[in-house]
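Q: I have 448 residues here and want to know how they pack in 3D. Can you give me a structure?
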Amino acid sequence: LAMGIEISLNDETILTRAVKDKIPYNVHDVRQERFADTLLIQQLGTQAYAVVPLISRDKVIGLIWVDNYFNRKVISEEDMQFLSSFSNHMASAIENARLFEQMTMAEQQLENIFESMSDMVYFNSSDYVIKRINRAVMTKLKLTEEQILGRKCYELFHGTTEPYVRCPHHKTVSTKQAYIEELEDHHLGGTFLTSSSPIFDTSGEFIGSVHVVRDITELKELQKKLVTTEKMAALGEVAAKVAHEIRNPLVSVGGFAKRLEKKLDGNLQEYAGIIVKEVSRLEGILKEILGFVKEARLAKEAVDLNLLLDDIIRLMESDIEERGLILKKEFEEVPHVFVDPNRVKEAIVNIITNAVQALSGTGTIAIKTSVQEHQVILEIRDTGKGIPKEELPSIFNPFYTTKSAGTGLGLAITHRIIQEHNGRIEVESELDKGTVFRIYLPIKEEAV
């Protein structure tokens, strides 16, 4: 019955007064108390009762209510003292229970945040031992929690047997200060934005550090692509203007040289022929430059890459055979790719041409196709002289070449074409052993 009773704090009763005044009340006879709680009297048959507020942090959080319905004894002053003492313990217990519940909920919320963060978060002791990790750390390291905790951080994150001098945690251990730095880590294979903050105990003793590590490898690659794109655009604009300015007088020079060649004889005719030949070569270079800088419109269609490669091989087969080279094919059955066949053909021809030119005397060119997840891979391998390691980062730059002849645009055009198709191109090379180009083309739904 008591649990079914609701009393509004707006009513003027003994119960509400105990809440508002924060003092206990002892009602000896409900008939003589004008503020006696009518609901208690009517529904419970109460004749006498006492109310003691439960106070915590100067705030009423509840009431203790007792009556003498069963024994009909007077509620004495001694009973009231006992109830007041009991109420203090009860208020403290209730408040502690609430605080514990709030703390548990807060811990759970922090735990959920900690585990759901896409950034790696982990705690290290002052002696580099990993004490706590979130799920992102396990995902990145591909290890379980048991395999990570208790081990030295530099072993797992940097692959070293001693502290890594560039690591922010090592700096925090040395200086007891916080650091936020970009760190290129070859062991994890990427670039990371690392925040390291010191942790101190209540006595101010340094006990370790907390780390938040974000993988920004993809962001750095996008920044590089943006810089390259802007550089290409500026370079292309200059090249286009120069090419147009040169083309008109070059055509005139070539035309007059051809006329002179027909009318002259002897050495003069030979000189005029050289002019015609060199003008023709310059016109070819201008054509290649303009082809690089012009905006390409892709005419994409579903293409069988193996058939496209067969066409290219037929086109270049005679030149390859004349040089005494060996051509090997290793084609897997691959899905169609949704590409512009003419543009992709141009890119592949550039790579094979480079491979042919890299081989002197005898050698082998191997062309292989395969499928990996949602992309088709084309691999072109040669046994030529290879590319020096220091030159590899520059081979796709326009006008970069190590040959005595050529514009250095072939691989730049190839790189651009692959990017136009949302693919990527990679190169591996070793001096005197050869070079491998790998082209990754995404398999689109339109091509299925």
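Q: Anything worth noting?
A: The first strand starts at residue 25 and ends at 27. The mean pLDDT is 85.
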